[in-house]
Specification:
Strand content: under 5%
Number of helices: 12
Helix content: over 70%
Shape: globular
Order of helices and strands: HHHHHHHHHHHH
Number of strands: 0
Structural class: mainly alpha
Radius of gyration: 21 Å
Largest sheet: none
């Protein structure tokens, strides 16, 4: 007989150290990077289909978003040279290394695309930059989910299957929302479709994660994270429905729907961030899953012996 495994933390203190990241900087970095990356994909689509007003606005939006995203990251790092130091090597197994190189390649491409769209000069260069930004955009939008899942924080690490998909869906919702805000109604049909599909995907991925995570799923339902994520779902669904039903006919409705999608996406990123911090600070989210894993192995060993 194998005795029941018992796990406790030292005087009830956290088992791991919670990340020292500031929510404003890192959750903002997650949101803005997603908005930029997915926005470049929509900008390329608008460029190819002759939706020039939307294309120009989305290229400028992506440039502004990635610039603010980089500023938030550097502010959290403390000194700009720390970001430059991350480019000294390229390590494919490190999400931080890959992400740093992605940002350094994506940023100039986005800048060239926006400059070409605004000035009208060097159209071939601008088109090439638009295509390059669109190719890099999905990775920029989703890699932060991989980055968070690569940590020891239970709410992020245990959701490693779903988190990149959730971030990609949330980024798509944000980009669709921006397109609804800045583009004319005559050009916003793709954005309305994208917003609806993103809302469906985000809802499905969130529910799948909460069903699979077990005890750790509490951190996504309770406290500050729970409030933010419930707000995110409400705003995202409302924005998607508003855009689909009224966004093609009423400019004000399209803008309001876009703002709801943008705000919902931001709440998703800040909610996931809050869930991670809560799971790191409470030792039960580390020790109880460990105990469950040991018990499963013990049951498997007992069944094998029988």
């Amino acid at each position: 007989m194998v005795p029941r495994a018992e796990f406790e933390s030292y005087y009830g203190r956290p088992v791991i150290k919670a990340p020292a990241w500031a929510a404003r900087d890192i959750a903002g970095y997650f949101f803005l990077g997603g908005l930029a990356g997915a926005g470049s994909v929509l900008a390329a689509g608008a460029h190819l289909t002759g939706r020039t007003t939307t294309a120009t606005a989305m290229k400028v939006s992506s440039l502004a978003a990635v610039s603010l995203s980089a500023a938030a990251l550097i502010n959290d790092l403390g000194r700009p040279d720390r970001f430059a130091n991350m480019l000294r090597v390229f390590k494919p197994t490190s999400p931080m290394s890959v992400g740093s190189w992605l940002l350094s390649l994506y940023g100039p491409a986005t800048g060239a695309a926006a400059a070409g769209a605004v000035t009208g000069r060097l159209p071939r260069v601008g088109a090439a930059a638009t295509g390059a930004a669109a190719l890099l955009g999905p990775a920029v939008a989703a890699y932060t989910g991989v980055l968070a899942a690569d940590t020891a924080v239970p709410a992020w690490h245990d959701a490693h299957r779903e988190l990149p998909h959730l971030f990609a869906a949330s980024a798509t919702a944000a980009a669709a929302g921006m397109a609804l805000v800045v583009g004319p109604t005559s050009e916003n049909t793709p954005a309305r479709w994208a917003g609806g599909l993103a809302a469906l995907a985000e809802t499905a991925v969130t529910e799948a994660a909460e069903r699979r995570l077990g005890l750790v799923a509490e951190t996504y339902r309770e406290g500050r994270a729970g409030v933010l994520l419930r707000t995110a779902r409400t705003l995202t669904v409302a924005g998607a429905l508003g855009g689909a039903v009224l966004g093609g006919r009423c400019r004000a409705a399209a803008a309001l729907s876009g703002l709801a999608l943008l705000t919902g996406s931001a709440c998703t990123r800040f909610g996931v961030f809050a869930a991670g911090i809560a799971s790191a600070e409470d030792p039960k989210y580390t020790v109880v899953p460990q105990r469950e894993q040991v018990e499963q192995r013990q049951q498997g060993a007992g069944a094998g012996g029988a």
